[in-house]
């Protein structure tokens, strides 16, 4: 591999802090660190040193660390200059590193190098970013598990089983004159079935992991004036949205992230759904519909005095949304508030008054429960995943189904091709498993005898 250049970046968050770190990685890292500290750096020692500019003047004093390749985060030589967390000092230090031969790192480049050095696979490198971005403790724990390779190990175990199946099929192709059943066809089918079910399990776990990473995405909809924006404000704890008694107040989508007992929930307020309306309002309704396509939860706000009003427009809009919570708002205007049972479709129904706060505790509890259920329980070994991973697992499953159908028709070449594509799809997740390894593996594990 070509000699890489040396990269440098401020590793700590922007802004002032107690301590700030400039990190270097690459072949010149040590020389640059030693030039700035004017002393020899011993691997894995904390050196208290002065960081000096080109004239020898002190920029700051701090701790210098040197990690010798390959025992470092990136697998390359790494130096950290831990200074006082002053943006001015850190920028000067970084500029000094660049004068001495480093260049500014691109976003994610330290982790990219860790991947290229084989210290992390792709899914783990993505988990680093997901850990840093985690919105709550549950998502952080789950990202931590993905970073520890829990997801990758399961992908690689499936890839191993798939490899065994491919080897079997490729070997059978060499005896194409014989029926598959004399070549262990029954065992092969059993292996395929076991793999398909393991793939399904992992796909379900990855889908939960994706929702856990992204958080629960809830869209508030309902007829105009029902109190949707009032609800968003109540949940956000601030007057984010304009509230008036004029029907058609909200037009744009309004996004807000709220935390319910520490669990993150994305909320979107939308324009009231009704027939007609002016051009702006109609555009607002169109956007509301678009937002519902991505929703995990529809929070439907109705006027408790006339809950049938606008209900059919709402019912049309929420087709396909996995979960629904129906709120009969303005309960304060009713003489008698009847309890609302949950219905057979699993939808939840609550009677609330945003004005008086009645029912809001029950609403919080309900949202908390929905948000937690969405990602699965963090204690059960959940890991974060991304849409990219879910997509790859789905493609692998589809190809495996194809292969099984081809095997039933004794079309071994077609089955082999589908299995290869499935293997490639799995390989995309970790970036490590390579379907091309097959030939080497076949020749090393089989004596084909010709
Ligand atoms: N100061 C500092 N803190 C940090 C990081 C960092 O880069 N610098 N990290 C950056 O993300 C995270 C920790 N990740 C790290 C991962 C591996 C190694 C490392 O040196 N690994 C060597 C030695 C292992 C050992 O002795 O335990 C190795 O794996 O060979 C360092 C940090 C969080 N905290
Ligand atoms: N009495 C009573 N009034 C409420 C309650 N919640 C909201 N309102 C009032 O209902 C009116 C409409 O509230 P909004 O929150 O703007 O309603 P919306 O659903 O966002 O309306 P559009 O944006 O026009 O679709 C305002 O005057 C609110 O003060 C409630 O619980 N009780
Ligand atoms: Mg509104």
UniProtKB/TrEMBL annotation:
Q: Which domain of life is it from?
A: Bacteria
- Which residues are recorded as binding K(+)? 225, 244, 246, 249
The molecular function GO annotations come to: hydrolase activity
**Protein residues bound to Mg(2+):** 229, 250
Q: Which residues bind GTP?
A: 225-230, 244-250, 269-272, 329-332
* Principal location: cytoplasm
Q: What class of enzyme is it?
A: hydrolase
Q: Does the keyword Nucleotide-binding apply?
A: yes
The record's cofactor note says:
Binds 1 potassium ion per subunit.
Where does the protein end up?
Cytoplasm
Instruction: Give start and end of each TrmE-type G domain.
Output: 215-372
Q: Which UniProt keywords apply?
A: Cytoplasm, GTP-binding, Hydrolase, Magnesium, Metal-binding, Nucleotide-binding, Potassium, tRNA processing
List, separated by semicolons, the cofactors it needs: K(+)
Q: Enumerate the residues binding (6S)-5-formyl-5,6,7,8-tetrahydrofolate.
A: 23, 80, 119, 450
Keyword tRNA-binding appears in the UniProt entry: no
Name the InterPro entries on file.
G_TrmE (IPR031168), GTP-bd (IPR006073), GTP-bd_TrmE_N (IPR018948), GTPase_MnmE (IPR004520), MnmE_dom2 (IPR027368), MnmE_helical (IPR025867), P-loop_NTPase (IPR027417), Small_GTP-bd (IPR005225)
* Entry's family note: Belongs to the TRAFAC class TrmE-Era-EngA-EngB-Septin-like GTPase superfamily. TrmE GTPase family.
HAMAP family linked:
GTPase_MnmE
Per the entry, what this protein does is:
Exhibits a very high intrinsic GTPase hydrolysis rate. Involved in the addition of a carboxymethylaminomethyl (cmnm) group at the wobble position (U34) of certain tRNAs, forming tRNA-cmnm(5)s(2)U34.
Q: What is this protein called?
A: tRNA modification GTPase MnmE
């Amino acid at each position: 591999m070509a000699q890489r250049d040396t990269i440098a970046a401020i590793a700590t968050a922007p802004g002032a802090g107690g301590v700030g770190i400039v990190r270097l990685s690459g072949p010149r890292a040590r020389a640059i660190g030693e030039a700035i500290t004017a002393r020899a750096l011993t691997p894995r020692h904390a050196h208290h040193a002065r960081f000096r500019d080109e004239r020898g003047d002190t920029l700051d004093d701090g701790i210098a660390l040197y990690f010798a390749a390959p025992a470092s985060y990136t697998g390359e030589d790494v130096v950290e200059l831990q200074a006082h967390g002053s943006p001015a000092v850190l920028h000067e230090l970084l500029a000094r590193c660049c004068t001495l031969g480093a260049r500014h790192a691109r976003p994610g480049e330290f982790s990219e190098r860790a991947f290229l050095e084989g210290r992390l696979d792709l899914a783990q490198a993505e988990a680093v970013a997901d850990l840093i971005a985690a919105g709550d403790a549950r998502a952080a724990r789950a990202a931590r598990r993905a970073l520890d390779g829990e997801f990758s190990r399961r992908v690689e175990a499936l890839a191993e089983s798939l490899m065994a199946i491919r080897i079997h099929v490729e070997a059978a192709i060499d005896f194409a004159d014989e029926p598959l059943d004399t070549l262990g066809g029954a065992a092969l089918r059993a292996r395929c079935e076991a793999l398909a079910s393991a793939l399904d399990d992992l796909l379900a776990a990855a889908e939960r992991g994706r929702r856990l990473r992204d958080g629960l995405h809830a869209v508030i909809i309902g007829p105009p004036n029902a109190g949707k924006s009032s609800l968003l404000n109540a949940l956000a704890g601030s007057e984010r949205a304009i509230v008036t008694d004029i029907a058609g107040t909200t037009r744009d989508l309004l996004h807000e992230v709220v935390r319910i007992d520490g669990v993150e929930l994305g909320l979107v307020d939308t324009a009231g759904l009704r027939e007609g309306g002016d051009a702006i309002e109609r555009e607002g309704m169109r956007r509301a519909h678009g937002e519902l396509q991505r929703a995990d939860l529809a929070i439907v706000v109705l006027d408790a005095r006339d809950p049938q009003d606008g209900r059919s427009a709402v019912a049309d809009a929420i087709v396909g949304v996995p979960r629904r919570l129906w709120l009969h708002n303005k309960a304060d205007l009713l003489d008698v508030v009847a309890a609302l049972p949950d219905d057979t479709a699993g939808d939840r129904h609550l009677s609330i008054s945003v004005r008086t706060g009645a029912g809001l505790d029950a609403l919080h509890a309900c949202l908390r429960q929905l948000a937690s259920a969405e990602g699965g329980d963090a204690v059960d070994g959940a890991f974060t995943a991304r849409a990219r991973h879910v997509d790859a697992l789905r493609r692998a499953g589809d190809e495996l189904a194809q292969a099984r159908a081809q095997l039933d028709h004794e079309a071994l070449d077609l089955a082999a091709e589908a299995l290869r594509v499935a293997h490639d799809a799995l390989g995309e997740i970790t970036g490590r498993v390579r379907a091309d390894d097959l030939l080497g593996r076949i020749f090393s594990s089989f004596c084909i005898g010709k």
